[in-house]
Amino acid sequence: MAGAVGHSEQRIMSQKSTIESLLEKAGIQVDGPEPGDIRVHDDRFYARVLAEGSLGLGESYMDGWWDSRRLDDFFAKFHDVPLDHAVVDKYLIMNALKARLFNMQNMRLSKRVAQQHYDLDNAFYEKMLGPHMQYTCAYWKRAQDLETAQKHKLDLICRKLHLQKGERVLELGCGWGGFARYAATHYGCSVTAYNISEQQVSYARKWCEDLPVEVIQGDYRSASGEFDKVAAIGLCEHVGYKNYRTLMETVHRTLKRRGLFLLHTIGNNASVSTADPWFDKYIFPGGMLPSVAQLSAAMDGLLVLEDWHNFGPDYDRTLVAWQENVDRHWDELKAKFDERFRRMWRYYLLSLAGAFRARRIHLWQVVLSKHGALGGYEPVR
User: Fold this and answer.
1) How far is C-alpha 236 from the chain's CA centre?
2) What pLDDT score does 68 carry?
């Protein structure tokens, strides 16, 4: 019996040593003094991460097996070196195989993310996002608070699209209707918006009921009609690599000859066919981030590239502001959500903040035209 106990302790010490040596490469210590260091509360953490990779890291945090005073700092360091290649992630391999065999973002499967994530609770999102109900990166260039930064983002998109009074705008994936409302109110446009989330569609229709805004509960692929401008703000992360071309074909089909299209999306440094396993299970089923190569291949021969703007560090600041809002309102929210949900949500927002800070992922606004902007396109910043 003593020998078995001793062998078990040796195995735990070996697993701990392996994890500690990996973390040291990123400047992270177990029980260290820095805000981004970690505290391990359960020694099963080490075996779980080695066996389950990203999923084990996230689930063990949700279970309270480890903590960090600044989870965003931890992930900024974590993503600064390729630690994710040091552990064989069997779940990532399995998800990649499924993605190659099946279209994981077809019209049926694409509804999963709406049901699991976007239909979560409108009141929760109101507390987190603020009055503009913008669940995409804010623009902080001339802003000091989230509300102003989100307003500036909305106006930036309108200016990049050269919106004019009376124009017809198609929005693919409209969230709670914030952009449609802004474009109709401040630029005098009529907006037709498509969204698969029942809760978001209901909210957007009510919020925009006195404006020339039509909100259709439907997949972006079903969009029809002809429009002066098209916008997809935060949709592309849910499209999937097998459907990027379909998205561009939808834009080409619905855009007038001299129209403009703005794509606002998180972007990846490398081309992938699946998402991080923890995010796929708990946050965005079927989600994945496009690369430059994937988007350029999708638009090839269909659309003309006019401008490509990267302001990824602004998403770091946006995510931290969202987490601060959740913390500020937690006493009101905890009647509906338990502590495990709170840890899951914190992990989601702050792990992404760290990834943006490390420049592993980015925020792109890409402006495209159907047949080229006559006289050239002047970039807007």
Assistant:
1) 9
2) 98
CB atoms within 10 A of CB 198: 14
Mean pLDDT by 10 residues, the chain (381 residues): 65 88 92 96 94 92 98 94 56 48 53 72 96 98 98 98 98 98 98 96 97 97 97 96 97 97 97 90 92 98 98 98 98 95 98 97 98 95 96
Residue where the block lists tokens 């998180």: 266
Tokens representing residue 277 in the block: 């396993």
Query: Angle formed by the axes of helices 313-328 and 71-78, to 10°?
Result: 150
The DSSP annotation for 110-123 comes to THHHIIIIITS-HH
* Helix, strand, or coil (residue 275): coil
The boundaries of every CATH 3.40.50.150 domain in the chain are 107-369
Please give the Cα distance from 38 to 30 (Å, whole number).
5
Distance of alpha carbon 83 from alpha carbon 372, whole angstroms: 43
Pick the closest to residue 149 from 378, 321, 282, 352 (CA basis). Answer: 321
Q: Is the dihedral of CA 292, 294, 297, 299 positive or negative?
A: negative
Q: How far is CA 4 from the centre of its chain?
A: 46
Q: How far apart are the first and last CA of the chain?
A: 69
Contact criterion met (CB below 8 Å) for 271 and 283: no
**Full-model pTM:** 0.92
Residue 236's SS3 state is: helix
Q: How many helices (H) and strands (E) does the chain have?
A: 15, 9
Task: Provide CATH code, domain 107-369.
Answer: 3.40.50.150
